[in-house]
Write a structure and sequence with these properties.
Blueprint: E1 4-5, H1 11-20, H2 25-38, H3 51-60, E2 61-62, E3 67-73, E4 79-86, E5 89-97, E6 102-105, E7 109-111, H4 120-124, E8 126-129, H5 132-150, E9 161-164, H6 174-185, E10 197-201, H7 205-214, E11 218-222, H8 228-234, H9 243-254, E12 262-268, H10 276-286, E13 292-298, H11 312-324, E14 328-334, H12 355-359, E15 373-375, H13 390-398
Parallel strand pairs: 1-2, 6-9, 9-10, 10-11, 11-12, 12-13, 13-14
Antiparallel strand pairs: 3-4, 4-5, 5-6, 7-8, 14-15
Helix pairs in contact: 1-2, 5-6, 7-9, 10-11
The protein binds S-adenosyl-L-homocysteine (SAH) and iron/sulfur cluster.
Length: 399
């Protein structure tokens, strides 16, 4: 029987696993803290555990992170890891330091089935859901790598915020997501407050309600359009859960949310959704409805999209209409450009072994990294991920 990876468990799960083997809950808690407070990758050094228990754990369990294909550091301090998740899939995780906080952008899936028109992950199609262990391994690795790199004092935390804004639609991987969120929030885990953990969704309405019930962290909703016709085109999921349903779900979520507003992300696409008329429609849609703020994201182009980034003038004019109507509005700032973490694209070919490739006639595609950007103001930075074959990723590193 293969060893059990303890990174897959939230604390309750670890207690259950220990109990199933006749071990006491407080032992599970000790091990949990070794893993998530101290970054233990093995059992030998768990000095407060009796030797027989350590030996048993060594035989039965592992603490198995992900292998790092690349780690790149920007001159602005942004760090980007490309992790191998097997079978040619890779996901990215990005550490974005800012004056008041250090944010980690985490991936939830290899690829994404949502097929948003402006998103390179969407263009790649869906490969698979990440497991809880793979989601947590990104945080576990980044936290302890950054503690070492930043030379922090023992116990001092490197990461203050997590945003589920990497590759994939987190609410389409709900079963794996929720235990991972619980570890982020757990004082014996990463001890982050619910306000400092953000789930970003393209609008999976039933799962917004479930998240409200199970683990209400901060919510960001990728809106991108002020009416159903345009949103149907940009975010195909809108055909299943149109704006009226999505906004109703946001309103319900606010009852449970740790913040008293919903953040709407809006990717600014030249001539598509960035006209003053669109801003006015947004105002009409949301005025007197519920507390929300806008986060305008300059589009990061990729070759197959056929879309262009809005001009700074259009973004400014659009923002002004929202601000004049009383909405807090921020524009995201690009980060990590020199490591292709922002506006950058993963150079080199990336394998595309998804069904969508077949649908496109099987051409191979050069798959870019989605952009990594940080916001100017108070909401969480956006970052992104790449799905790459191991070989392609290595070529990227060497090239
Ligand atoms: N699937 C989730 C979270 C991951 S995408 C979601 O869609 O919300 C995180 C954010 O990046 C989303 O707001 C998404 O719209 C945005 N994004 C995707 N592709 C982009 C691009 N090419 N340029 C700018 N932002 C992009
Ligand atoms: Fe998936 Fe989000 Fe990209 Fe849409 S924007 S394809 S939901 S990752």
């Amino acid at each position: 029987m293969s060893a059990t990876n303890l990174l897959q468990f939230d604390r309750a799960g670890l207690v259950d696993w220990f109990a199933a083997h006749g071990e006491k809950p407080f032992r599970a808690r000790q091990v949990f803290r070794w893993i998530h407070h101290k970054g233990a990758a093995g059992f030998a050094g768990m000095s407060d555990l009796a030797k027989p228990l350590r030996s048993w754990l060594e035989a039965e369990a592992t603490i198995q992170g992900l292998s790092v294909l690349t780690e790149k550091r920007s001159s602005d301090g942004t760090v980007k890891w490309l992790f191998d998740v097997g079978a040619g899939d890779a996901v990215e995780t990005v550490f974005i330091p800012e004056a008041q906080r250090n944010t980690l952008c985490v991936s939830s899936q290899a690829g994404c089935a949502m097929a948003c028109r402006f998103c390179s992950t969407g263009a790649q199609g869906f490969s698979r859901n990440l497991t809880t262990a793979e989601i947590l391994a990104q945080l576990w690795h980044a936290e302890f790598a950054m503690r070492a790199q930043l030379g922090l004092a023992p116990g001092e935390r490197a990461i203050s915020n997590v945003v589920m804004m990497g590759m994939g639609e987190p609410l389409q991987n709900y079963a794996a997501l929720v235990p991972a969120l619980r570890v982020m929030l757990d004082d014996d885990g990463y001890g982050l407050s619910r306000r400092r953990v953000t789930v970003s969704t393209s609008g999976v309405v039933p799962m917004i309600d479930r998240l409200a019930a199970d683990c209400p962290v901060a919510l960001a909703v990728s809106l991108h359009a002020p009416n159903d016709a345009l949103r149907d085109d940009l975010v195909p999921l809108n055909r299943k859960y149109p704006l009226a349903e999505l906004l109703a779900a946001c309103e319900r979520y606010l009852v449970h949310a740790p913040r008293d507003f919903i953040t709407f992300e809006y990717c600014m696409l030249d001539g598509v959704n960035d006209q003053p008329e669109h801003a006015r429609q947004l105002v009409e849609l949301l005025r007197n409805r519920f507390a929300c703020k806008f986060n305008l994201i300059p589009f990061n182009p990729f070759p197959q999209s056929g879309l262009r980034r809005s001009t700074p003038q259009s973004v400014a004019a659009f923002a002004q209409i929202l601000v004049d109507a009383g909405f807090v509005t921020t524009v995201r700032k690009t980060r990590g450009e020199d490591i292709d973490a922002a506006c950058g694209q993963l150079a080199g070919d990336v394998q595309d072994r998804t069904t969508r490739k077949a649908a496109r006639g099987g051409q191979s595609a050069t798959q870019p990294v989605i952009p990594i950007v940080a916001e100017l103001a108070s909401s969480p930075p956006h970052a992104t991920v790449a799905r790459a074959s191991t070989v392609a990723a290595r070529r990227f590193l060497e090239g």
